[in-house]
Specification:
single chain, about 300 residues, alpha/beta, Rossmann fold, 2 domains, ten-stranded mixed β-sheet, about 20% strand
């Protein structure tokens, strides 16, 4: 299966965040020239008759397909209703997908949680990039949101923000970030790299001279991005070496970004170690959509 055959997967469960994710996924599929597969996992439940569960799933998928046809009528769609737990179903489907998109919380989560268990599990284990879309305003904020709709449209967020490390794990993050920025005319790519005196020492760089460490981080970031800037000359790039952890910078930047991109190291999934502290903090506290890219 080629990359152009691998669809964007949108997970739906009827919640507000999943509706936001569906619309985000539909627009992204069009930008990338890919199909969209809408998935609703039917969690095994002995308390509900199988026929009832199937009917409810079909009704949800029907509504989802209609919504997609309203906003992007040219998009080709398909649908799936696997009988499995959502995280397991989506992780399995990610093997043949270009991108999995889901909401930050589903119907079963507590409203006080910033990130649902399914979102965290899929982001930690999927074989392809995963985008977690933050839900829109709550019901009580609806009127205020409507009042600000016109102003908000004029201030559409276009930045793609990517957090990178000073090693080979950044290649996947940079590839995804540049591809995403290139598919959005006028988008700017902000590349954030956090550095500390300790990390410089571990990598064999300067230790006691803060200015020298900062200069070294700047050079490292320039080297990491040089080849990608040549491949995507149309993308405006801003390099941001940050003294200290990049987490705070990424979370702050996410408020005005179309997408924030972080990496996940492969191999630690079985122990729950797929997400670094920076990636998990960004995914949990970001104010907008976050892409987690396996590296």
């Amino acid at each position: 299966m080629t990359s152009t055959d691998r669809p964007v997967i949108a997970a739906v469960d009827g919640s507000s965040p999943s509706r936001e994710a569906l619309e985000w996924a539909a627009h992204e599929a069009v930008r990338r020239g890919l199909g969209l597969t809408i998935v609703h996992a039917r969690t095994p439940d002995r308390r509900v008759e199988p026929d009832t569960q199937r009917r409810e799933a079909e009704e949800l998928l029907d509504r989802s397909v209609r919504r997609v046809s309203e906003i992007v009528p040219e998009l080709r769609t398909s649908r799936l209703t696997p009988l499995d737990f959502p995280s397991a179903a989506l992780t399995s489907l990610s093997r043949d997908a270009s991108l999995v998109v889901l909401g930050s919380r589903g119907l079963g989560g507590f409203r006080s949680l910033l990130l649902g268990s399914n979102s965290l599990a899929v982001a930690s284990m999927a074989d392809c990039p995963v985008v977690v879309v933050r839900g829109g305003p709550s019901d009580e904020d609806t009127e205020a949101a409507k009042a600000d709709e016109t102003a908000g449209a004029a201030e559409a967020h276009t930045d793609i923000v990517a957090g990178v490390a000073a090693d080979e794990s950044s290649e996947g993050v940079l590839e995804f970030a540049f591809e995403t920025a290139a598919s959005r005319p006028g988008a700017r790519l902000r590349i954030v790299h956090g550095w500390t005196m300790f990390s410089s020492m571990l990598s064999g760089g300067p230790v006691f001279d803060r200015d020298a460490v900062a200069d070294s981080a700047e050079r490292t970031l320039a080297e990491l991005t040089a080849g990608w800037r040549e491949k995507y000359p149309q993308v405006e790039v801003v390099r941001e070496p940050v003294g200290g952890s990049a987490s705070r910078t990424l979370v702050t930047a996410s408020a005005t970004a179309a997408l924030t991109v972080v990496g996940r190291r492969r191999g630690g999934e079985s122990l729950g170690l797929g997400l670094s502290p920076v990636a998990q903090t960004t995914l949990t506290h970001a104010l907008g959509a976050v892409a987690v890219v396996p590296c």
